[in-house]
């Protein structure tokens, strides 16, 4: 059976629900929904105010997610302001994960193909970030967000070939599938570098309603995680877009997904 820290979630999908209606997200409502759905923790920048609010709902902090233009020169990242303060807050809040995203060249609306030199730069930047926070005890990982195979493969090389051993992978099952990568193969091939997860299922390039439906066999993913001895957080990144055709709320999808994952874990060899 997989030994995990529990279930956590990013908040992007929840905030999208407010943005769809032209509203500002209510952290109190979101945290309450996460807690009632069965979540154990949250992945966010744990400012003192948010940590206090999370504690009110019995929620821990698993870590934080930071998006950076990692293909740019290290000096432009300004990690003394963009990374170090967040990393310190994560530690103070009891978190373990520092998940870094290689934001797209050209922006989110029109991502461009990165060059091999830029993938090398990503690896070097990740190594320097890991070294800068090495005294904090955090696990630093690269989150795969590329939606095309060229950039997804390159981001993978950035970690495996160009970064120090201290840098690991945060496997986002949904984005891996969209980019043509197999999450199970990633786990088994790079078992010693799997530091974190973002779980989402897909129907092609469309986000599925919850983890029980879609092209990705989550039982196989969890079996692979168990086989490689993964013991970290099981972090969700559920999102409902127009094409999802969701019949229930995101909170309901979260509760359904937690129950499903628990049943899968109970059945693991």
Q: Can you offer a commentary on this structure?
A:
The protein is an alpha/beta fold and 269 residues long. It has one domain: TIM Barrel (Alpha-Beta Barrel), CATH 3.20.20.150. Helices cover 41% and strands 17% of the residues. It is built from eleven helices and ten strands. It has helices at residues 12-20, 27-37, 48-56, 79-82, 84-92, 116-132, 149-160, 173-178, 183-189, 218-227, 250-266, and strands at residues 6-9, 41-43, 60-68, 97-102, 139-143, 167-172, 194-198, 202-203, 206-207, 233-236. Strands 7-6-5-4-3-2-1-10 form an eight-stranded parallel beta sheet. It has a two-stranded antiparallel sheet with strand order 8-9. A hairpin with a 2-residue loop joins β8 and β9 (206-207). α2 (27-37) runs parallel beside α11, α6 (116-132) crosses α7 (149-160) and α9 (183-189) runs parallel beside α10 (218-227). The radius of gyration is 17 Å and the shape is globular. 47% of the residues are buried. The mean pLDDT is 98.
CATH classification, class level: Alpha Beta
Question: Using only CA atoms, what is the Rg?
Answer: 17 Å
Average pLDDT, rounded to a whole number, is: 98
What is the helical fraction, as a range of percent?
Answer: 40-55%
Spatial sequence of strands, sheet with the most strands: 7-6-5-4-3-2-1-10
User: Span between N and C termini?
Assistant: 7 Å
Shape, per Cα inertia axes: globular
Poorly predicted ranges: none
The fold-level CATH name is TIM Barrel
Q: CATH superfamily membership, which one?
A: Divalent-metal-dependent TIM barrel enzymes
What's the architecture, going by CATH?
Alpha-Beta Barrel
Quaternary assembly: single chain
How much of the sequence is in beta strands? Answer: 15-25%
Overall SS class? alpha/beta
Number of DSSP strands? 10
Q: Specify the number of helices.
A: 11
Order of helices and strands: EHHEHEHHEHEHEHHEEEHEH
User: What is the total number of structural domains?
Assistant: 1
Biggest β-sheet, characterized?
8 strands, parallel
């Amino acid at each position: 059976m997989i030994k995990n820290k529990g279930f956590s979630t990013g908040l992007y999908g929840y905030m999208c629900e407010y943005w769809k209606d032209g509203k500002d997200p209510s952290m109190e409502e979101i945290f309450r929904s996460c807690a009632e759905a069965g979540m154990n923790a949250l992945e966010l920048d744990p400012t003192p105010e948010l940590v206090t609010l999370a504690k009110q709902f019995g929620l821990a902090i698993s870590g934080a997610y930071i998006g950076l233009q990692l293909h740019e020169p290290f000096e432009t990242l300004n990690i003394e302001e963009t990374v170090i303060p967040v990393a310190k807050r994560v530690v103070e809040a009891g978190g373990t994960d520092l998940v870094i995203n290689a934001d797209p060249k050209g922006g989110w609306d029109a991502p461009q193909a990165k060059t091999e030199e830029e993938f090398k730069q990503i690896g070097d930047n990740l190594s320097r970030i890991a070294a800068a926070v090495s005294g904090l005890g955090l696990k630093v990982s690269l989150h795969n967000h590329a939606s095309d195979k060229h950039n997804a493969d390159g981001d993978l090389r950035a970690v495996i070939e160009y970064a120090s051993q201290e840098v690991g992978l945060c496997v986002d099952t949904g984005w891996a599938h969209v980019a043509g990568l197999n999450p199970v193969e990633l786990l088994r091939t790079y078992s010693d570098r799997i530091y974190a997860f973002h779980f989402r299922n897909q129907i092609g390039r469309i986000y599925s309603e919850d983890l029980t439906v879609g092209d990705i066999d989550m039982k196989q993913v969890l079996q692979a995680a168990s086989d490689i001895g993964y013991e970290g957080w099981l972090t969700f990144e559920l999102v409902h877009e127009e094409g999802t055709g969701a019949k229930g709320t995101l909170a309901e999808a979260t509760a359904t997904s937690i129950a499903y994952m628990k049943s899968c874990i109970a059945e693991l060899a």
